[in-house]
Structures are given as C-alpha cells and as structure tokens.
Amino acid sequence: MSTAMFGSGIRRREDPRLITGAASYTDDLTLPGMLHAAMLRSPHAHARIGAIDASRAKSARGVVAVYTSADTEGALQPSPCAWLLPDSDLKIAEYPCLAKDTVRYVGEIVAVVVAESRYQAYDALELIDVDYDPLPAAIDLEQAGGPDAPRLHAEIEGNQAFHWTVSGGDVDAAFANADVIVKERILQQRLIPTAMETRSAVASYTRASGELTLWNTTQNPHIVRFLCSLVTGVPEDRLRVVAPEVGGGFGSKIAVYPADFVTVFCAMKLGSPVKWTETRSENYQATTHGRNHVQDVELAATNDGRITGIRATVRAGMGAYLSTAAPGIPTILHGLMLSGVYDIPAIHEEVYGLYTNETPVEAYRGAGRPEATFMLERLVDVLADKLDMDPAEVRRKNFIPKFDDGHDVATGLTYDSGDYEQALDKLLRHADYAGLRAEQEEARQQGRYPGIGLSTYVEICGLGPSQVAGAIGFQGGLWESAIVRFHPSGKVHVFIGASPHGQGEETTFAQIVAAELGVSPEDVKVVHGDTDNTPMGWGTYGSRTTAVGGAALALTARKIREKCKVIAAHLLEAAVEDMEYEDGNFFVKGSPDNGKTIQDIALMANVSWNMPEGVESGLEASTFYDPPNFVFPYGAHLALVEVDAETGQVELKRYIALDDCGPQINPTIVAGQVHGGVVQGIGQALWEEAVYDEDGQLLSGSMLDYALPRADKLPEIEVLSTVTPSPHHPLGVKGIGEAGTIASTAAVYNAVMDALKPLNAPAVDMPFTPERVWRAIQKGKGN
Amino acid sequence: MFAPEFSYHRASSIAEAGRLLAEHPGAKVLAGGHSLIPILKLRLAAPAVVIDIGRIPEMKGIAAGNGTVTIGALTTHAELASSEIVRANARALAEAAAQIGDPAVRNRGTIGGNVAHADPASDLPQALVALGATFRLTSPEGARSVAAEDFFEGLMTTSLREDELLTSIELPAAGPGRGSAYAKLAHPASRYAVIGAAASVTVAGGKCTAASVVLGGLTSRPTRAPSVEASLVGQTPSEAVIAAAAKNAAGDLGDDLMGDIYASEEYRKAVAHVWVRRALAAAAARCAG
Ligand SMILES: Cc1cc2nc3c(=O)[nH]c(=O)nc-3n(C[C@H](O)[C@H](O)[C@H](O)COP(=O)(O)OP(=O)(O)OC[C@H]3O[C@@H](n4cnc5c(N)ncnc54)[C@H](O)[C@@H]3O)c2cc1C
Q: What would the pLDDT profile of A584-598 be if each residue is shown by its tens digit?
C-alpha cells in the first residue's frame, strides 16, 4: 500500500452500511425516557396570531407539555443569521424560534407539543386552537419590493433585506460602445433540496451538570454548537453536538433551525430527552429552499463575438426570514463569479434580496454559482444566435487563456489555474460535435427537433481564506483542521472538523493518509461529526471538505513523516539528513532493506522506550489549515435533447460532463459526485419547481407534485476530465461536489432552446414542462 | 405523517369481511393500502375501523374460461402486467398496470383498490371501461354485477355501497381480430396519468368493425370518445385514418376537464389526441386478421 493509493478508484467504505440499512441516523436514536415533539405549523403565509388555546391538547392522552412563544421568552434567542453581508444595507428581521404575534410563511412554528409518542404528539396538534387573522401575502418577486406589496416586517421598508453591488471596469462605456447588446429575463425558480433524510434533532439535558447533547442532522456540527450556544445560553463547553449519519443535505442542512432550538428548549425544560423528526411535508414547508431569482441580464459584445461587458439586476427571494448563510449566496457566491470562464473587462451587478411570505432560502448545491453560470451561458448562446455564430466558437473567442498560477477577473477574484479551451476541445472531440450538428441538420429536414447545448463554467469553492470570510461578513472562520494519531499497532485514527455526509471522505481521507505515509487505507479510520471528539471545523459545504480539510490532513501526515524520520534516524544511529523515505519505510540513504517501517516507529513512539533527545512521546500531529485562496474547478458540459413538437415533451438523450477538479484522489468518487450533481442540475431544467399560489400556499408540497429526477428519465452520464492542479493547494486538488449542478442546468436549457430554434419559439421559463414547451411552440407558430 | 388512531381487523374470507363491514358502519377496507394509507396519514380520512381484506384467498388469482377472464380484486398491478392471460386477452389492461407508479406501488396496489378508490388520475379505470369489464360486488344481502362504464360515477365516487366489497372483475376474452392498447402521459412526480388513453379495436377484412376508446386522467371519470370511435368504424385503420379519428378526442372530452400546476385543462385537451392516436395505432397493429 502506498502512494499508488492517490488516484485509485477504490470503493467507498461508507457504502456497505448505507446500502444495507445498517447506518444510524438521528431518528434511529432512542434514549431512555425519551419524549417526542411535534411542531404546530402555520397554515397561513401571513397572519396575525390572536389567542392560542392549548388546553384541550394539554389534557390529551400522553401529552406532557405544550409550549408557545410566551413560554420561551428569555430562554431562546432568535434563530440567527450568520452571514452579515457588508456594504449592503443588510436588514435582518428577527426570526423567533416560535412565532410571536405574526406568522410569515406556511410552515412557521406556532407551538410545540411534547408527548410520550409521536402519534400522541401529532394527535394533539389538532387540538390546539389558534385564532389567525390572515394578512395579504407578498409572493411575487417582481412585486415584493414594490410600493403596493404587503410588508412582512414592520421596520423593513420595501421588504428589502439587502442591496448589494459588484462592479469592475467601465460598464457604461462597454454598453455605449457595443456593436450588439443581447438581453434576457431569466427566472431561477425556487427548488426544494429534498435530502433523502428529513431533518431531525434529539436533545438530552443533564440538569445536574448543565450538559446538553444535541444529535442533529447537520452539515456542520461545530457551527451548530456555536450558534446553539448563543440561542439557548448553554455554554459551548457544556454543549456537545453530534451529527450521526446524515442522509444528504445539499445546503439545506447548513442552516440552524428554530425547530432544533425548540427541541432543545423542551428537553431542558422537561429534563427528559426529546426527539423531533420532521415529516416529508414539513420538510417541504420548513426546511430551506434554494435558488429563486428573477434576473435581468444584458451582454455587450463586438460584431465578431467578443464580450465587452455584462450588466445585471437580480431580485433574489430570501423567504420570510434570513436563513443562517442566506445573504452570501446570491451575492458573494453569485455576483463575484460573473466573469465565468471569459475575459470580460466590465461587469456590474445589483442584487436586491427581498423578503417574501415563503420558506426561507439557503444554499442549495452550487449555491449562487449555478445562477451565475446560467446567466452567462444563456446569454452567450443568445449572442451566438444573434451573430449567427456557433456557440462553441463564441465561447472559444472569449475564454481566458490558459494560466497556471493566478488570473484576475473584473469582479476582483483571482482564479487559481485553468485551461478552459482544452476542456471544451476535449469535450467536443469526444462528442463529435461536428457530427452532432450534421445529424441535427438532417433530423430537422425530417421534422424532428434535436438540440445541442453547451455549458462552460468555472466555480469558486474550497471556501476559503478566513481573512476573506471576515471581510465578506461570514460570521466564522473558513479553515479546517485534522488530527492524525498513530496507535502502537500502527493503526491510525484521523479526526477531522469537517462533517462529510455522503461525499465519501471517510474513503478519500484514508487514501490521503495512505498516500502520504504508506499505510494501508484499511488501517485508517476517519472520525467526524462529534464536537466532543473532533477538532473544530467549519463544516461540509461549498465543496470545501477535501479542498480545505484534505489539505489540513495532508500537511498533518507530512508532520508525522518528519517526526518519524527523526525517530528512525535515532534508531538507525544515523543523521536525520541522511534519512530517506519511501512508501512507509524510513532508511539510511542507499540501504532501503535495513529501514524502519512506519509501524515500527509508531510502536516505538507509543511505548517511548528509546526516543531521540527532545522528541515527545507518541505519534500524533495536527494542523489548522487556512487556505491562501479559494480553488476554481471548471469544465465543459454538453447535453443532447430532442423535443416532440406536437406535445412539447423533452427527452434528454445524451449528457457529457467534462470536469477539471485537479488531481483526483478517487476517480470513482469524483464520477459519483459528478453524476449526482449533474442530475440535480438537470432536475432544475426539466422537472423541479416549488410552486406557491398568490396566498402563499405551497402547491408543490409533496412528492406527488414536486418532480425529482428519476433514473429511467436519464441517459448514462458520460464523465470526462482534464487535470489542472491548483497551484496553492498541497495536493493540487479542487472541489467536485457542486460542479455538476453548476454546469448542467444551463447545458440542458441551451439544448432545449437550440432544439426549438427552427420553431421560432420564445424563451421558456424553467422547468421545461411539456405544456410550457408546447405553448412556446404555439407562440412560434403565431398561435 | 401519522394516521389517527383506528382499530384493525383482518378478514379471512369474503363472508367475514361482509360481516365486519355490517358490524362497523363507516369502516374502510384495506387492500394494498397504496391509496388508503396515504389518505389516513394526511388525515383526510379518520375511519374508526379498518378491515384488512388483503389476505382473502377467494379474491386472488386470474382465470380464463367460457369466453371470460376473471380477475380477483386483490390481484396486484405487477401480477396484471405480467399475467399471460391478461396480456393475451386484455393487453390495454396489462399495459396500464405496467405503467402505474413505481415497482413498490405495483407490487402492493390492487386492481380492486384502484377502481374502488376511483382516483381520476388512475390508469386502470379507462382500460377496464374500454375493454368492457364487469365488476362483481358482494354484500351480506347478495351479489350484483355492474358494468365498468356504470361503476365510475365521478371524482372518487363509484356505485359501490358502503357495505359492499368488490370481489372480482370480469372481461370478455379476446376475440378474433381484436387488439387493445394503453398510452399515457405520466406526471413526472406522482406517475399518475395526466392523460391516459385506452383503445380496443376489432378489425375484420381490413376494416375496423368495432372501436372502444376511453380517456382518463383529465376528466373526473373515465370518458368515452364516441366520435373517435365512430370515425374509425367502417374504415381501414391506416395511420392517416387513425390520426384523423384521434383528432376528434378533444370534442368528446367536453368542457369539464381537470388541470393542475403541471398541465392545464387547455393543454390536456389540445394534446390528448396524441395519446389516443398512439393507443389506437398500437391496438390496430395487434388486430391479426
Ligand atoms: C406513489 C404512488 C404512485 C401511484 N401511481 C399510480 C399510477 O400511476 N396510476 C394508478 O392508477 N395508480 C397509482 N397509484 C395508486 C395505486 O394504484 C393504488 O394501489 C390503488 O389506487 C389502490 O389500490 P390498493 O390496493 O392499494 O387500495 P387501498 O389503498 O387498500 O384502498 C383504496 C380504497 O379502495 C377501497 N377498497 C380497496 N379494495 C376494495 C375492494 N375489494 N372492495 C371495495 N373497496 C375496496 C378501500 O377501502 C379504499 O377506500 C399510485 C400510488 C402511489 C402511492
């Protein structure tokens, strides 16, 4: 076992327990004397709360307590927003854990019932009488900021949560001097993340010691500990947060939630453990949503297809309150990426974050970057169409030329490394692009409508230097930490602060240690998710766990290697400078057969019978790694669709993803991340949409109506890659968790619009339901 | 979600089920549970008593004889889809069953529960009406037969009385020159029918002698398309004739269509003919003779 472990597509060690049902999630936990909480949620999008009569519920069988906001007064602080976007006139509305006098979205918690069983708790919900005085709701994003819109928060004018601007270069001049200008209005519909595991919390409080343990479905247990401490007043040293197995998050489990704090409150008040697990309907109403932009974008260009400027106004729906990281998503993670893979000299974007009477919005796989990629990739296609150029050609013309150690874009970011043209070339070669275009021409002659869509993207991930975190108002650091501990038998424990929940780092992190120290990955156990036995870390999101945590781990392993060298030199009675290392063996130059294995050294370090002067016992090291910059993975995707012009149905026939995430630690896992990511992006293009009616009722409130991608509607995804190391990362790796989603929505969208071109159809709002496509075709016919 | 409390009884025979139903007015029978359980969990219904009929042996199985195919009400969708008897005699039914939901739904859901529930977005009702099925209903007072066409009265309402059990469904066996088919636009989330078209066609001497075309998914009950049928009978069922006949479907659907956030009434009405055409073409292709 050796360095060869880096790049080996070994199977994920997580999978046997996950696919045999042996994994243990929060809801699987049962504690002695545990009670069950159920949340009474508002049926109204906007209403004043009058009297709440819980007397019938309180006397129902099995019911232990019913609490409303009056009971939590002083005990629970509001649920916090922790991304305080600077220079944006940010107005954070108080988000009470239990609604006080007003409810502002369907699903907001009004009361909690604690009972001996879940059935009893849910039965009792029906016995609570609440007087609601319904108010008009602000739903439509285009009107929510207007003078006639109902106001959500008395103190916040125009429902405006923030107004943020990014600017670089002389945009006015770019547009004044443009040969051509293309414009689009793009709707990024609201999406529901739909993690397989719904959210859950189990809280257990020991009065005698004042200690609280919270098991929680979260992507970042250390952040939960920090924020839960602020909200509940339990000191951080008395608070243990455990993220057991977590069944997907996609951003929706970054946030901290009122329901979790209410569960903690109940456990503390009653002195018994309390479990709360949301139903799927609650998950759709109360766990955060994603996207939700209205984007007005225009591109300035020369007649030969060079982009000279981009200008955009985005209205971003935030929902009724600002979720934990929400303000940073449509701004920092969106606007700063508006140059994409292109050399665009002038960029200007204004983003208005608006409160609406809907479920709060958070990060959702890609978080801001898919919305940026889409704007650019759509407009580039519109430009190509206007100039009658091939979309691939326009892209090539505008690509930032190959760079391997930094490139500055107009938004102020410095990309790390990239070769965008190579990616597109390889993609087009694999696809036989010219052949596809010829087949398309032929099919059109026969009255069939195939379409080819491209999306070339770059994304920002591996969040990020902590100094930048501070500058952009992120209320935390963005470093990661790792501890590597060798046991006497040579087996290894790795403790990390990040909290993978399906991405496979238990496997890839073992591979990193194996590659750096020559042990078998089988001998490396990766521990994460429990704040009491892992070092601090900021969590798994923004494709950062391998990019940041993996770097911390590699550097830690290297520290171990250096210590081993010193011990080996001592044992071999040689000078440290004369020592060499290869695949777990430390030896004097020229005598590899008389070396000491890392296992020999681990034993010696642990028993410590014969250590060199001044070297500590044990074999353990740790690193806090704060990256010098973000990483910028990129790629080129192609989608092939066919539209049935009679019915408007869209069939996705082929999908090719080329992604460059630097050197791949485990290509099988990379492909898996690409598959999942691509499919989630396809979901936005073709099927998914959270639909609210004008009263703020969620019409797509269950899986009966909210259409997720299904395997039988998808082609085999063809996965390609190029390898461009990040110059500043110890392993050269970038992130891959979100790349697929960031690219694929635009690729599929462009493909469908390309298919519709001979039909003269106007732009269609996502998702491409048969009816929407059919209506566009009717319009194209002049009907 | 969590169902309200109910008491559970299991019947081991039709007679016992009848007795239990008589004893507990307002009780609900439980077959595959794939419509009833969701309704209970959503608390849209709260029966005090649930009578499980799922293990009654007399209500299972598929048999053919005397020009009739008899299907026990507890036959699952998966069994319908894979049954040689059903495929040979009532292909439209096998095809409709094969396109229901997903494997879990097809393995648990039953034909009896599907038609008794009479969800307008279901697939089996229109197939059964097109194939001329007859439903056998039993109560302690005796048994009766109802034509499928008369059984479905409207949105989730049927001629089944509260104390009655649907025990079996009978279909005429395939005749010479007859073929049937089912075509569907499935909702991408639920997989229920947005548009479901069932067709049964008989061809003799190259001409269509009988046609039965029934649509579902877009009306509150299975809706026959008489002008589609009329414009086929007497004609050679060529591609062009079928396409022209199918176009009449919109007129037959009337104005009382159903729409939702996925597909409006207008859209469904405008494109329904495509699925009618597909079902007719497949059915006609199966008419050997
Ligand atoms: C996810 C999902 C997707 C689905 N997709 C489709 C689809 O695409 N197409 C489709 O057609 N259906 C679909 N269904 C419904 C499915 O076919 C159900 O199984 C069927 O509608 C009900 O049959 P059941 O045996 O489960 O009945 P149950 O749920 O047990 O009962 C349904 C109703 O019928 C009554 N009942 C049941 N059996 C009898 C009987 N023998 N006599 C009298 N009354 C009786 C019950 O009292 C109850 O009121 C779907 C269901 C789910 C959960």
A: 999 999 999 999 999
Cβ distance of A771 and B264 shorter than 8 Å: yes
Residues with CB under 6 A from ligand 1: B 28-36, 38, 53, 73, 77, 100-101, 105, 109-110, 112-114, 116-117, 119, 122-124, 160, 165-166, 190-192
Question: In whole angstroms, what is the distance from residue B168 CA to residue A106 CA?
Answer: 44
Contact B288, B205 (CB under 8 A): no
- Encode pLDDT of B94-121 as tens digits: 999 999 999 999 999 999 999 999 999 9
**Complete edge-to-edge strand list for the sheet that includes strand A47-53:** A102-103, A47-53, A129-134
Burial profile A398-437: b = 16 or more Cβ within 10 angstroms, e = fewer: bbbeebeeebebbbebebbbbbbbbbbbbbbeebebeebe
B2 assigned to some structural domain: no
Domain residue limits at B232: 181-285
DSSP string, A648-670: --EEEEEEEEEEE-SS-S-HHHH
The average pLDDT across A509-527 equals: 96
CA angle B227, B233, B239 (to 5 degrees): 90
Q: How many domains does chain B have?
A: 3
B288 touches chain A (CB under 8 A): no
Q: Check whether residue B151 and residue B214 sit in a common domain.
A: no
As a whole number of angstroms, the longest Cα–Cα distance in chain B is 61
Q: Is the pLDDT of residue A1 over 50?
A: no
pLDDT of A100 reads 95
B49-52 β-sheet, strand order: B7-10, B49-52, B28-30
ipTM value of the model? 0.96
Instruction: Collect all residues with Cβ–Cβ distance below 8 Å to B57 and sequence separation of at least 6.
Output: none
Question: Given A119, A703, A775, which is nearest B2 (Cβ)?
Answer: A119
Please state, in angstroms and rounded to a whole number, the distance separating the CA atoms of residues A211 and A222: 16
| Residue tagged 């108080």 (tokens) | A94
**DSSP run (H or E) holding A377:** helix A369-387
Q: Tell me how far apart the alpha carbons of residues A445 and A202 are, in angstroms, rounded to a whole number.
A: 62
B146 and B72 together in one domain:
yes
The CATH number given to whatever domain includes residue B240 is 3.30.390.50
What CATH fold (topology level) applies to the domain A31-135+196-248+253-286?
A: Aldehyde Oxidoreductase; domain 3 (3.90.1170)
Q: CA-CA distance, A392 to A414, in Å (whole number)?
A: 25
- Under the banding of pLDDT at 50, 70 and 90, the label for residue B288 is confident
Which tokens is A170 given?
A: 């002389």
Same domain, residue pair B159 and B64? yes
**Across residues A78-88, what is the average pLDDT?**
97
Q: Is the pLDDT of residue A2 over 60?
A: no
Is this model's pTM higher than 0.90 or not?
yes
Tell me if chain A has a CB within 8 Å of the CB of B155: no
Domain assignment present for residue B68? The answer is yes
Domain regions of chain A by residue span: 3-20+479-625, 31-135+196-248+253-286, 290-463+629-780
A449-474 pLDDT, tens digit per residue, is: 999 999 999 999 998 899 999 999 99
Ligand 1 center–CA B143 separation, angstroms:
22
Tell me what pLDDT residue A4 has. 75
CATH assignment of A3-20+479-625, given 3.10.20.740, 3.30.365.10, 3.40.50.1980, 3.40.50.170? 3.30.365.10
Q: What is the mean pLDDT of residues B3-14?
A: 96
Contact B121, B35 (CB under 8 A): no
